[in-house]
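Hi R.,

Here's the chain you asked about this morning:
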Amino acid sequence: MRRSRLKRKASGAEPTPLQPPIGGRFAPLTDEKLRDITNSAFAILEQIGVGGAPSDIRSLALDNGANERSDGRITFSRPLVEDMIARACKRVELPGFVQERGIEVGGGRVHIGTGGAAVQVLEAATQTFRDSTLEDLYSLMRVVDACDNIHYSLRPVVARDMTDPFVLDINTAFAGLKATSKPIGTSFFEPANVAPVVGMLDAALGETSFAAQPFCFASVCHVVPPLTLAEEACGVMQECVRLGMPLQICSAAQAGATSPAALAGALAQGLAESLAGLVLVNMMKPGFPCILAFLAFISDLRTGAMTGGSGEAAVANAAAAQLLLNLGIPSTVSAGMTDAKTADAQSGYEKGYTIALSAQAGADMINLSVGMLGSIMVASKEALVIDNDMCGAIMRTVRGVELFDGSIDLDMIEQVVTGEGHFLGTAQTLDLMTKEYLYPSLGDRQSVSDWLEAGALTVWDKAIARVSEIEALPVPTHLPADIEAVLRERLPIHLSEGL
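And the predicted structure, written out as tokens:
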């Protein structure tokens, strides 16, 4: 091959690290397994279907081509499901409150986010656990706002100091709204709470409407595994469709408990449950922005407890991402749900391989992936910033090895090997320092002697300092003060002013 064909000018195309990398190179399922599990999911919907359908959902389904068994279960033929998949939204735009901070979900574009409903937080100074509060929710989401490798924030903790369901739903959404200008996600106890929250979000945007800039999505568990619809959640789903709030609908069966112990069987059931929700949403409104959160949870069969950090959890969620990517449906999976109680070595290795496999498999959104401990029962700001560092490296692996103009330059190589003998001072090296390479914020790369001389700080020590730096920054100002004041007058907002 001629040198002129190998050499490419540096003025041409370059790596684009700011773009979301596209996953899908890792395929835990062979073509045969992919086909068999998908076919089994269609068979489950056609033969077994879903139970517990409220009367309005039953009418909706039957009016749109579904069938009803003698025992009342609603079934969906394969042609009907395939038709609804064809109608479904394939790219979901989730703008931020600051619109340019938004993300596009679909096609294997990998994004990292929070999620879950932890009920405790870990106090960094004392290493003790306590119940989570509204202020904790705000503080965690404010840390997300400052983390460059975390792209959205679904509420990571429950504000346990809020006891009234309406007050909780309003304040959960408000805490996210005030804490970050990235896309946020929230949840609802009952359908009646959706309209007031959407009204609040609409008012917060001022001259822009929420319909035009839907920066908040609703996380809705539409199904109670195995294969039973959740009445209140279905009502929430209907209200979100009516009011234009994007949906992330969740199936979260636990293999060995609420889905089969065989991973293939659990995946088939979970895919069927996910598709059932997609069918119903598209019966409500074809093409409505809906993301399938196919959360393949795993049981420790010795105890029946959920294990989020297992190898089985890693491969099952990567397979879930592959199944949805194969169908062309925007996806969310769960990863990073370490069983460790602190940010220790167990936490690091469990988070590392579970998130990496899902990202490499092409999950569009990875929920529950950062800041969580204790099988998603605990959240930690310090763990959040450590995980941000880790996710930067994982996202770099998803980019892979890029061949761009100037990446292979035989003239440069000859000049170095016949000259100074190293590439440190070449124009290519200097140009690619921050384009091809990513550097940790907290991870340490010093020599042992330099590390000792610098104070022998652990990553946990650095995380405590980083959280303090973030909390010392000026409070977010994307929500105008006059609009915030109006919202506080109109609604039962409990978050302290000035945070």
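The chain has 17 helices and 20 strands.

Let me know if you need anything else.
M.
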